[in-house]
Write a structure and sequence with these properties.
The protein is built from 17 helices and 10 strands. By secondary structure, the protein is of the alpha/beta class. A 4-stranded parallel β-sheet has the order 4-3-5-6, sandwiched between helices. It has a two-stranded antiparallel ribbon with strand order 1-2. Strands 7-8 form a two-stranded antiparallel ribbon. Belongs to the bacterial sugar transferase family.
């Protein structure tokens, strides 16, 4: 894993992005250089257009979810995403390279090569999506511990990280209870440093259930670190691997003395400017959709088109969120707040569709322009549920240290949920965002939101 602008990315992801961008740029420049002196005059223009197309393909591949590492994605789903990408990528390649100021024959050749490069990128994306598990760049990880915490780390790595290979578990002398398969315990009779070197370990995850009583061989861990082996604690491991902060394995000291949680005046100012730009741009593009939605809601059922509800915002301050009405007007006729569920019978037919493709969220752009919300941030909750969740979930109030968002890290990473347990899972993503939020992460979330809308997946 490599940390870029406070966000962890797989080395393989960076290599995939570099390969895709490089393939397009190489193809365009190669065809220009092969056409003789006359075509070389167009080299600067071809290079700039090639970079533009490469940037567009990065956005398309990100928006279709090709740079996400998903274990159970089928070949059929990958092919469908590739076809969707081609629907946008091929017309873009054609449009961009028809503008190159060279003679017709060279322009036609450049356009054909650019479109072929786009097709090659999408074919490679499908191929790479199903071969990453055999990558030679997989990290070899040794889990230090054999208790329940170590078992959790091992199960998580195998389930969620195709780029990690668990070489085994190393038992601490103070850990008597074995919660992992005995066959996977390695290095018996060897010191930690020697065991790590013999198994060519790249990283050690310290996952001890009990850390007191000399269970941590600090000298050996330091020797491992000095020899180039990464050493991380269990909280940092989950932050890197799952892009979560697991509240079951974190303490206040780790949050206080670790890095992150950098808000700052400059960060807030930049975020506010980008919020206004993106909100205004999206409204300019989607106003016909909003108009059609308003008409459809009015035709289907009586009642207001827009739905206003008090939510908890920055620093716990209440504000009125605006959405398209997707439920019956008597959804809470008994006056008692209720969680929205996946197949909620209170949702209208129009409401079911606009909720699925997130059209009901578009009026929240007005909240963004008013400064009550941001484009990206934790989703705002009602005060009734906030009070309940603060009482039951540690650190829940931390999510109110930033503005709530129209979309968020939890929304693009976690499926629909409406229970206390689901709230815990979503909070762990929200804590990661609050700790590591940057403009870079905001842009990634907005790109992944497009993928969520296109596939109909994600949380509400």
């Amino acid at each position: 894993m490599i940390r870029i602008f406070s966000h962890y990315l797989h080395r393989q992801t960076l290599l995939q992005v570099g390969f895709d961008l490089g393939l397009i740029l190489f193809a365009v420049l190669a065809v220009v250089l092969s056409q003789g002196e006359s075509a070389k005059l167009a080299l600067p223009f071809a290079a700039s257009h090639g970079l533009s197309l490469a940037g567009c393909m990065f956005v398309i591949n990100s928006a279709t979810g090709f740079y996400q590492h998903v274990h159970n994605r089928s070949v059929t789903e990958s092919c469908a995403r590739a076809l969707l990408g081609l629907m946008f990528g091929l017309p873009l390649a054609y449009a961009i390279f028809r503008l190159v100021p060279v003679d017709t024959s060279h322009r036609d050749l450049l356009t054909m090569v650019a479109m072929s490069a786009v097709a090659a990128v999408m074919v490679h994306r499908v191929y790479a999506s199903h071969t990453t598990a055999q990558s030679r760049l997989r990290s070899r990880i040794l889990i230090f511990g054999t208790g329940a915490a170590a078992r959790t780390v091992g199960n998580t790595l195998r389930a969620s990280d195709p780029h990690a290979q668990v070489v085994g578990y190393y038992q601490s002398p103070t850990e008597a209870q074995l919660e992992v398969p005995r066959a996977e315990v390695i290095g018996q009779g060897l010191g930690l440093t020697q065991a790590a070197r013999e198994h060519a370990v790249d990283e050690i995850v310290v996952a001890l259930t009990e850390r007191r009583g000399g269970s941590m061989p600090l000298r050996e861990l330091l020797d491992c670190k000095l020899s180039g082996i990464k050493v991380v604690d269990i909280a940092t491991h989950f932050e890197k691997t799952l892009a979560q902060i697991k509240i079951s394995h974190v303490n206040a000291g780790w949050l206080v003395f670790g890095d992150g949680f950098n808000q700052g005046v400059m960060r807030s100012a930049i975020k506010r400017v980008t919020d206004i730009i993106f909100a205004a741009a999206i409204m300019a593009v989607t106003w016909p959709i909003m108009l059609i939605t308003a008409i459809a809601i009015r035709l289907e059922s009586r009642g207001p088109v827009l739905y206003k509800q008090e939510r908890v915002g920055l620093n716990g301050q209440p504000f009125s969120v605006v959405k398209f009405r997707s439920m019956r007007t008597d959804a809470e006729k008994d006056g008692k707040p209720r969680w929205a569920t996946l197949n909620d019978d209170r949702v209208t037919r129009v409401g079911r569709f606009i909720r699925k493709v997130r059209i009901d969220e578009l009026p929240q752009l007005f909240n963004v322009l008013r400064g009550e919300m941001s484009m990206v941030g934790p989703r705002p909750e009602r005060q009734f549920f906030v009070d309940e969740l603060i009482a039951k979930i540690p650190y829940y109030a931390v999510r109110h240290s930033v503005k709530p968002g129209v979309t968020g890290w939890a929304q693009v990473r976690y499926e629909y949920g409406s229970t206390i347990e689901d709230s815990v899972e979503k909070l762990q993503y929200d804590l990661y965002y609050v700790k590591n939020n940057t403009l870079f992460l905001d842009l990634l979330i907005m790109l992944e939101t497009v993928a969520v809308v296109l596939t109909g997946k994600g949380a509400r």
